[in-house]
């Protein structure tokens, strides 16, 4: 385990970015409460996977906040890969906690990267675990919150994009603090790409484009081009230089204007819990708890083993084709035999009383 406090001097968000964060109101955040579901396709049009983003209201430490969940899974060149982000952000888009999981399943080994970001007192802690084959590297980074004014996580970025898409304009010099792919503190910049026409299903719609570039301390900058429908729904997303594109294939259901401020519409999307770090963790915890509870019950009732052994022996002797029906019929026969025995004992008792009476 390696602990370090990175040097963050000289990096800061622009004045325009700070003013943007301060100007966001609750109504704009309310308009971001919906789900996006896109399909990942290759440059030849082959479907490779799925991409989804959901933003909804939540609570964190009993305080109201927003829950952001993004999930991407599929395969590139027949290599399974995916990314999952689960986070809680405040109304000021401050990141309270974020769990980021990336994986690539190569033929002979798996590359797995997990990042947990959480506020602790006056610091932001970033726990990093990278697993490659049997090699596991752990690192903890500590950032003072006083040096992170205008910091935007990946989860906050997803909400910012929706707000900017509904504005249909990007303020000049929008530069935030961010973390690059190696969790080094860096900066990210936004700029507009204008409007264009895009086919969604059988319809041609107008979309507004936003470019986001995250500078890297060691590598080349990473740039994404995202296009949005007028209501903020994501229409397409591509990382510049990547052979895959995420596209909307069906227009989302329109929200009723009267209910738009009261509730969000969530689209049905497939749940791949194995790739969701939070759901997978809950499943494993529940599985172990059930196993322990069942084992305890069996230890407290040793007669279960005798019952199971008796039934299994009877089953192997008869060898029925339909085990379930056979077991049900056996239960019925045992219940019938029990009733007959009870009636016989009752008649025997009555007969004995009659014979012994004067």
Main attributes?
15-stranded mixed beta sheet, 358 residues, 2 domains, alpha+beta, 6 helices, 28% helix, single chain
Question: How would you explain this protein's 3D organization?
Answer:
The chain is 28% helix and 40% strand. With 358 residues, the protein is of the alpha+beta class. The protein has 2 domains: 2-269, no CATH class; 303-356. The chain has a 15-stranded mixed β-sheet. Mean pLDDT is 84; it is low at 255-264.
Task: Write a short abstract of this structure.
One of its GO terms (cellular component) is cytoskeleton. This is Ciliogenesis-associated TTC17-interacting protein. The chain has 358 residues and is α+β, with helices and mostly antiparallel strands.
């Amino acid at each position: 385990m390696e602990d370090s406090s990175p040097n963050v001097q000289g990096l800061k968000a622009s004045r325009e970015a700070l003013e943007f964060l301060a100007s966001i109101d609750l109504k704009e955040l309310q308009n971001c409460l919906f789900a996006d579901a896109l399909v990942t396709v290759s440059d030849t049009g082959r479907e490779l996977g799925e991409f989804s983003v959901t933003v909804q209201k939540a609570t964190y430490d009993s305080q109201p906040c927003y829950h952001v969940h993004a999930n991407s899974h599929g395969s590139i060149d027949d290599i399974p890969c995916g990314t999952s982000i689960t986070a809680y952000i405040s109304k000021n888009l401050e990141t309270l906690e974020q769990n980021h999981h990336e994986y690539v399943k190569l033929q002979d080994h798996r590359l797995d990267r997990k990042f947990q970001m959480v506020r602790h007192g006056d610091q932001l802690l970033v726990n990093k675990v990278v697993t490659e084959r049997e090699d596991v590297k752990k690192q903890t980074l500590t950032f003072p919150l006083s040096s992170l004014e205008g910091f935007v996580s990946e989860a906050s970025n997803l909400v910012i994009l929706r707000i900017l898409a509904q504005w249909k304009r990007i303020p000049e010099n929008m530069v935030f603090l961010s973390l690059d792919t190696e969790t080094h503190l860096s900066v990210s910049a936004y700029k507009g790409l204008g409007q264009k026409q895009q086919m969604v299903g059988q319809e041609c719609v107008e979309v507004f484009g936003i470019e986001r570039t995250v500078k890297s301390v060691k590598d080349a900058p990473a740039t994404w081009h995202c296009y949005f429908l007028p209501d903020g729904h994501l229409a397409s997303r591509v990382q510049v230089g990547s052979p895959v594109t995420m596209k909307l294939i069906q227009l989302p259901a329109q929200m009723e204007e009267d209910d738009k401020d009261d509730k969000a519409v969530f689209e049905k999307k497939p749940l791949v819990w194995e790739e969701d770090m939070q759901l997978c963790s809950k499943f494993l915890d529940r599985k172990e708890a059930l196993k322990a509870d069942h084992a305890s019950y069996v230890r407290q009732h040793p007669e279960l083993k005798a019952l199971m052994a008796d039934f299994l022996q009877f089953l192997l002797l008869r060898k029925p084709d339909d085990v379930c029906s056979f077991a049900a019929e056996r239960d019925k026969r045992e219940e019938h035999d029990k009733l007959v025995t009870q009636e016989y004992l009752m008649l025997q008792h009555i007969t004995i009383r009659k014979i012994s009476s004067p």
